[in-house]
Amino acid sequence: MKIAYVLNTYPLPSHSFIRREVRALERGGSQVLRLAMRRSALPLVDAQDREEEAQTQYVLERGAGRLLLALAGRALRHPGRTWAALRQAIRAGRASQVGVLRHLIYLAEAAEVANRCAAEGVAHMHAHFGTNATTVAMLAHALGGPGYSFTTHGPEEFDAPAALSLGDKLDRSAFAVAISQFGRSQLCRWAAFETWERIKVVHCGIEPGAFADPTPLPGGPLRLVNIGRFSEQKGQVLLIEAMAALHAAHPGLHLTLVGDGELRGALERAIAAHGLDDAVTLTGWLDEAGVRRELAAAHALILPSFAEGLPMVVMEAMAAARPVIATYIAGIPELVRPGETGWLVPAGDAQALTDSVAEMAATPPAALTAMGQAGRARVLARHDAETEAARLAAHIAAVCAVTETP
């Protein structure tokens, strides 16, 4: 079975879960054609990401002339399908925040994707995120390409479902995937009732072998790590408020922020304003080995997000046998159990976040270790990359079998 992965920007440092899924599918016997619209503008610090980049075909690098020729060729060979796809693109563009012209560009990209799928014998397309990559897959299918499915993660898809024509994408897909039961519930809000049975849950996966021998919790004062893009939805500024409130009562308390993003400057100013330069470290983006090192050096992961899907960093921290402090939103409570594997607090509540850190600092090391081990057992049972990729492959095989039935 040959599958095309239709992606917007790939690979990205924060999207290692896609790479793991693709490679697990390949180990399971599927062939995967990687079709991305563009390369990452961010430096790829992980060698595995650089390997993925070398295996990826970039649609926009073929040039506007090639894309227009692809669309013209589709129009000549399949005028009815092309006209229907054009109407879909215009309708989606009018509903969107980016306009009709951008969707006409997506249509040209879709023509090239459909041609690549035909040339390479692709049986099915799968996109990640219900944004423009899925728009391209939907239009490629409308132009005569293979059927498509897509994985939604949140929160972007749930912030603007009408502008993304999410309901249309769901109803036209062979099936759709959510990464949590919460995510599935949100998709059901926008899909026709007849589509609900085609909305599946496939978790993002971790590679257990990468966490085969977790490092024991370190000694000394509490060390926390936060991992993720520095953006408004991740809530890292609240961490600086909590650190400022706790700094005097908990000497030695330390926070490491792994990542980068548009709020880096605001975070640096807040750290300086509160005199926390010795208590907070910013590392920038790290490769997977670097992330594992930071988890090993910490007692716990702390994630004060305002909006999420089901974060990979929570899974990785739990696999590393680290307790988690996170917010009670989206799919997080499906994985983190308060009092058993960590703490959950209301999103945006700086005082509750501060109190949870203080409570963790007062928790005996043996109890934190037990929490970490409980979390490790839970995530390994629910989020094995091989198991989840096999589940996705089975869904794809099922719809391909129906398509091939005379």
From TrEMBL:
Keywords: Transferase
Pfam families, sorted: Glyco_trans_1_4
Coiled-coil positions: none
Molecular-function annotations in GO: glycosyltransferase activity
PANTHER family reported in the protein's UniProt record: BLL3647 PROTEIN, GLYCOSYLTRANSFERASE
This protein's name: Colanic acid biosynthesis glycosyltransferase WcaL
Species of origin: Antarcticimicrobium luteum
Lineage: Bacteria, Pseudomonadati, Pseudomonadota, Alphaproteobacteria, Rhodobacterales
